[in-house]
Amino acid sequence: LSVLVLHGPNLNLLGQREPGIYGSVSLAEINRLLEEEGKKLQAKVSCLQSNHEGVLVDAIHGALGQHEGILINAGAYTHTSVALRDAIAAVNLPTVEVHLSNIYRREEFRHHSYIAPVAIGQISGFGVQSYLLGLQALVDHLRNKT
Ligand code: DQA
């Protein structure tokens, strides 16, 4: 079983960026924790971060035939990107949406997600744990399907 983890814009700055909201853990550390969790779940985890919408769209297209599911924190593109949503719908791979912060207790403009309607579920507000819970949920979903 292979899972693609996608991190959207500004998440490369995790650890330094607004630590009061996003915590002090770096993206490299999150990826390491995801790979470790993947080993426990016997799933291969491949991580990619990009600040560019088109690169993320290409990565979603490229997942077809390479990965069974997608775990995505689309960052601000969550609230703006029809293109990412359409890409997920197009490849039709089970996708779990995650956020470090609880987007529903923040500014109004973060309350809407273009990704949510094409995701199997969303986990928001648990910091790094959101990613680990999301990975577990995605792998469970993929295992129960097959
Ligand atoms: C985020 C929430 C988004 O609103 C924000 O733009 C991010 C990070 C999160 O993980 O909490 O960049 O996706």
- The overall number of domains is 1
**Biggest sheet record:** 5 strands, parallel
User: Judging by the overall fold, what is the CATH architecture?
Assistant: 3-Layer(aba) Sandwich
Uncertain residue segments: none
Name of the level-1 CATH class: Alpha Beta
- From the N-terminal CA to the C-terminal CA, the straight-line distance is 11 Å
Q: Tell me the fraction of residues in β-strands, as a range.
A: 15-25%
**Sequence of secondary-structure elements:** EHHEHEHEEH
Quote the CATH topology: Rossmann fold
Radius of gyration: 14 Å
Binding site for substrate: 73, 79, 86, 100-101, 110
EC number: 4.2.1.10
Catalytic activity: 3-dehydroquinate = 3-dehydroshikimate + H2O
Function: Catalyzes a trans-dehydration via an enolate intermediate.
Q: What's the structural blueprint in terms of helices and strands?
A:
Elements (H helix, E strand, L loop, with lengths): L1 E6 L11 H4 L4 H14 L3 E6 L3 H11 L5 E5 L8 H10 L3 E5 L21 E4 L3 H18 L1
Parallel strand pairs: 1-2, 1-3, 3-4, 4-5
Helix pairs in contact: 2-5, 3-4
This protein binds 1,3,4-trihydroxy-5-OXO-cyclohexanecarboxylic acid.
Can you describe this structure?
- The protein has helices at residues 19-22, 27-40, 53-63, 82-91, 128-145; strands at 2-7, 44-49, 69-73, 95-99, 121-124.
- 37% of the residues are buried.
- It is globular.
- With 146 residues, the chain is α/β, with parallel strands linked by helices.
- It has a single domain (2-145), classed as 3-Layer(aba) Sandwich (Rossmann fold).
- The chain contains five helices and five strands.
- Residues 10, 73, 75-76, 78, 99-101, 103, 110 line the site of 1,3,4-trihydroxy-5-OXO-cyclohexanecarboxylic acid (DQA).
- Catalyzes a trans-dehydration via an enolate intermediate.
- It is an enzyme of class 4 (lyase).
- Pathway: Metabolic intermediate biosynthesis; chorismate biosynthesis; chorismate from D-erythrose 4-phosphate and phosphoenolpyruvate: step 3/7.
